[in-house]
Structures are given as C-alpha cells and as structure tokens.
Amino acid sequence: MRYQTLNKKQKERFSNFFKEKYGLELKGQIVKQSTEKLRIFTGNLLEHELAVFVGTVRVETIGIYLVTLDNRDKGEKEETIRFSFDAGFLAKDATKNVLELNDKQAKQWFKGEDITIDSEQQSPDTKEDLKLNNVDYPFVLLKYKDEIVGCGKLTQDKDKIINFVPKERRIKY
After folding, report:
1. Which CATH number fits the domain that encloses residue 60?
2. Ramachandran area for residue 93 (φ above 0: left; ψ -120 to 50: alpha; else beta)
3. What is the C-alpha to C-alpha distance for residues 45 and 102, in angstroms, rounded to an integer?
4. 8-20 per-position pLDDT tens digit
5. Residue by residue, what is the 3-state secondary structure of 125-152?
6. Cα 139 from Cα 150, distance rounded (Å)
7. CA 48 to CA 53: how far, in whole Å?
8. Domain range for 131
9. Per-residue pLDDT tens for 51-93?
10. Which sign does the torsion angle of CA 87, 94, 35, 112 carry?
C-alpha cells in the first residue's frame, strides 16, 4: 500500500477543518493512505524524512488511522470527514460537535445500535438528555464519562445518531 504525505495546502485545509468543526489542534503529520483514509503520525521523523521513507520503503501501515473522507452521500456537494473508531483518544479535548451519552445510550452505542433522540425529552435542565445546541456538523463525537467512545452521524432531522462501531468491537450482552 502506498502512502502520500500531504502538501502544505492540504495540511492547512485539514488543520482548519479540525479546529473549526471540533475545536481541536492535531499535533503530528497527516499521511494519506488511500483516496479515503488519512492517518496521523506523531513519531520522530521530520516531514521530509517521512516523505522519503514512505516513498521508498514498502510500508504496511504508519501512524494511527485518523479519519475517513466520506463523500458517498449523493445529496452532499463536499466531502465529509468522519473520525475512525481508534482515533477517539486524539479528540479527547474536542470542544465542538461533541455529545455526551448517559448510561443507557452508552450501552446502546457499544452494542452497535443507533441512538434515537426524542426531541420531546430534550430539556436544558435534564442532564440525561443529549444536548444538540453545540452541533453544526453531521459527524459528532460521542463522549461517555470524560472519554470519547466513538463517532456517529447525526441524521438530517437530528432525531437519530447512526452507529459506526465496527461489528468485531461491539459488546454482546
């Protein structure tokens, strides 16, 4: 598999995206794995050393799988970016587009179920309900007890969060 380091313009675009949508500053070098996957590398190689390494040595994998570029939705003009399941710990300091789950919702999430949002139950003084007032991007980070547990897609009606937990990582109980 071939990797490609991002040029300055591409890096700036992704850095701005993470800052604008999630309030995050990612530290590390972003490497493009394929047309739809980006990885982040935080090792000791300098940018030009990484570019030479990736260009000359057959590398199976490098860094952590960070995001998927998702432009499969026919109604959307620009691509959307979805965090991978394993990249949640990198987004621990996210301040935007983060929804906190209660115990029941977290259990649903880890079982691989979508989370239904009942708009009638949404009230600012109820801690157990999801707060949608800080959400302006369809892919949201889900937090449970101070930990990011995944990324889901909020439907256009904002009545459901689509689950992206891989089947092999779902809890069965």
Report:
1. 3.10.450
2. alpha
3. 41
4. 898 888 889 999 9
5. CCCCCCCCCCCCCCEEEEEECCEEEEEE
6. 10
7. 9
8. 97-173
9. 787 778 776 778 888 888 876 555 555 667 888 888 877 888 8
10. positive
Question: In sequence order, which residues have a C-beta less than 8 Å from that of residue 108 and are 6 or more positions away?
Answer: 114, 115
Model pTM?
Answer: 0.76
| Bridge partners, 78 (sequence order) | none
Place of tokens 């970016």: 81
Last residue of a domain, one of 92, 124, 154: 92
- Given the structure tokens 């977290």, which residue do they identify? 106
**Encoded amino acid at 84, one letter:** S
**What's the CA angle centered on 16, arms 62 and 40, to 5 degrees?**
10
Return the structure tokens found at 51: 């570019």
Q: Which two tokens stand for residue 83?
A: 């965090």
CATH code at 128? 3.10.450.720
Give 106's contacts (C-beta < 8 A, 6+ positions apart).
144, 145, 149
